[in-house]
């Protein structure tokens, strides 16, 4: 049985990917320090897949402990989700972001090298492109678009991509998939796992969900003076379950390379379709069944007009395509939210009552 170590597997995208991995027949080992997740997500994944998930609460920067996990299991490949991801926070504490994201990755790669594990799928981000509208003909954004992140979080992703390219250049046996996610949204159809931000949500749909459930008064729409059909910015929103499946496709691509062949390559994971803030607002209101209060406020610093993926490379090479729609994601997010109004901390939660 192929064994996959999933760093950050208790988090939002990681937990959904663990389900797809187990359902595809992989053995999964999760390593997470729970800095931005709860062990409940793992328990609920176990409930969904009806299997025990091997879990270690370890900070990736603790190479000694991490090494012991590699000593104990014969790991075939790593999916590396672990990292801090809040753009605004990264501008306030950039050193912590570099230490955690870059430091954690270096520690992981060293341990992998020591154990001769050379297959890795890395969570990069569309944020590495920065503002692609500054170039002619780069929307939808192809992987060849020049990068230029505009915040420390994005810099950490680009630095890590660079480290991985250098490792591959030094040893062509490595097989490295750099997956650049666009905007992941939605939740598992069971309503048992989903995104559970701490504090005030930064992202559009988690914020809207909290408005709908009564935890926030209204949505602030950050500007309606952009060059789009309704004046609000355009993003490529992808259902988290489709995104999770993209990891299985990447693993299978790496595994099917010719013997002794290595690779380090970028793939965009998105839908290829752009939606504005109001498109998303209307779709989510439809899922909820009524309009939600909002107010147009000024632009948010750092926001760009359009981040829509060109997905030809992933469609053709990984044989993967996003299938679910924004409406599907809004329905699944609302299902998760109504079942878990306080996220994983919802009191008196009995999984069986919700099936
Ligand atoms: P998340 O915060 O829910 O998951 C990340 C997980 O990593 C958390 O469970 C956290 O506890 C763990 N973690 C962080 N630092 C760690 C460390 N040093 N050691 C061990 N565990 C650690 O985030 P997510 O949305 O699931 O994102 C997963 C990955 O995808 C991240 O690398 C993120 O940067 C990237 N990404 C996310 C988005 C998005 O919008 N959610 C978009 C593009 C890329
Ligand atoms: C989407 C749109 C906002 C909140 C971020 C990261 C990116 C990636 C995905 C990790 C924008 C508008 C939002 C609100 C609003 N993450 N908005 N009111 O900024 O596209 O991407 O998450 O890699 O790196 O930057 O996502 O959900 O924050 O914003 O009007 O309260 O919604 O202006 O147009 P973003 P988002």
User: What is the number of helical segments per DSSP (H or I, 4+ residues)?
Assistant: 11
What summary fits the major beta sheet? 7 strands, parallel
Helix content estimate: 25-40%
Mean of pLDDT: 97
List all distinct small molecules, including ions and cofactors, that are bound in this structure: nicotinamide-adenine-dinucleotide, UDP-4-deoxy-4-formamido-beta-L-arabinopyranose
Overall number of strands: 14
Poorly predicted runs: none
Shape: globular
Rg, rounded, reads: 20 Å
The SSE string, one letter per element, is EHEHEHEHHEHEEHEEEHEEHEEHH
First-residue to last-residue Cα separation: 30 Å
Taken as a percent bin, the fraction of beta residues is 15-25%
- Class inferred from helices and paired strands: alpha/beta
**If strands are numbered along the chain, what order do they take across the biggest sheet?**
3-2-1-4-5-6-11
List keywords for this structure.
single chain; 355 residues; alpha/beta; seven-stranded parallel beta sheet; three-stranded mixed beta sheet; 11 helices; 38% helix; 17% strand; globular; binds nicotinamide-adenine-dinucleotide; binds UDP-4-deoxy-4-formamido-beta-L-arabinopyranose
Could you write a compact summary of the structure shown?
This protein is an alpha/beta fold.
List the helices and strands and how they pair.
Layout lengths: L2 E5 L4 H12 L3 E6 L6 H11 L4 E4 L5 H10 L4 E4 L6 H6 L1 H21 L4 E7 L26 H19 L4 E7 L1 E3 L18 H9 L6 E4 L11 E2 L1 E3 H16 L7 E7 L5 E2 H12 L5 E4 L8 E2 L4 H6 L8 H14 L16
Helix pairs in contact: 1-2, 1-8, 3-5, 5-6, 7-9, 7-11, 9-11
Bound molecules: nicotinamide-adenine-dinucleotide (NAD) and UDP-4-deoxy-4-formamido-beta-L-arabinopyranose.
């Amino acid at each position: 049985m192929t064994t996959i170590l999933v760093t950050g597997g208790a988090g939002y995208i990681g937990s959904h990917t663990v389900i797809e991995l187990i359902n595809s027949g992989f053995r999964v080992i999760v390593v997470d320090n729970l800095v931005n997740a709860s062990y409940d997500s793992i328990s609920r994944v176990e409930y969904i897949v009806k299997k025990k998930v091997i879990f270690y609460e370890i900070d990736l920067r603790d190479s000694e402990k991490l090494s012991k996990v590699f000593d104990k299991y014969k790991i075939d490949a790593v999916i590396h989700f672990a990292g801090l991801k809040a753009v605004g926070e990264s501008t306030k504490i950039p050193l912590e972001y570099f230490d955690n994201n870059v430091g954690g990755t270096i520690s992981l790669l060293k341990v992998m090298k020591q154990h001769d594990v050379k297959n890795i799928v890395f969570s990069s981000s569309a944020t590495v492109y920065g503002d692609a509208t500054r170039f002619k003909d780069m929307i939808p954004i192809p992987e060849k678009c020049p990068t230029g992140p505009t915040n420390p979080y994005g810099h950490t992703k680009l630095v890590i991509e660079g480290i991985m390219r250098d490792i591959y250049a030094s040893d062509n046996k490595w097989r490295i998939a750099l997956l650049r996610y666009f905007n992941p949204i939605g939740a598992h159809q069971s309503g048992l796992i989903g995104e559970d931000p701490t504090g005030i949500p930064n992202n559009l749909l988690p914020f809207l969900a909290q408005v709908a459930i009564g935890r926030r008064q209204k949505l602030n729409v950050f500007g309606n003076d952009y060059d789009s059909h309704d004046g609000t910015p355009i993003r490529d929103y992808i259902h988290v379950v489709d995104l999770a499946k993209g990891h299985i496709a990447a693993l299978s691509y790496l595994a099917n390379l010719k013997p002794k062949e290595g690779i380090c390559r970028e793939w965009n994971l998105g839908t290829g379709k752009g939606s504005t803030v109001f498109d998303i607002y209307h779709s989510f209101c439809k899922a909820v069944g009524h309009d939600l209060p909002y107010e147009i406020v000024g632009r948010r610093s750092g926001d760009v007009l359009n981040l829509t993926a060109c997905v030809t490379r992933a469609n053709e090479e990984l044989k993967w395509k996003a299938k679910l729609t924004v409406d599907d994601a809004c329905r699944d997010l609302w299902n998760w939210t109504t079942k878990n109004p306080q996220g994983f901390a919802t009191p008196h939660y009995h999984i069986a009552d919700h099936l």
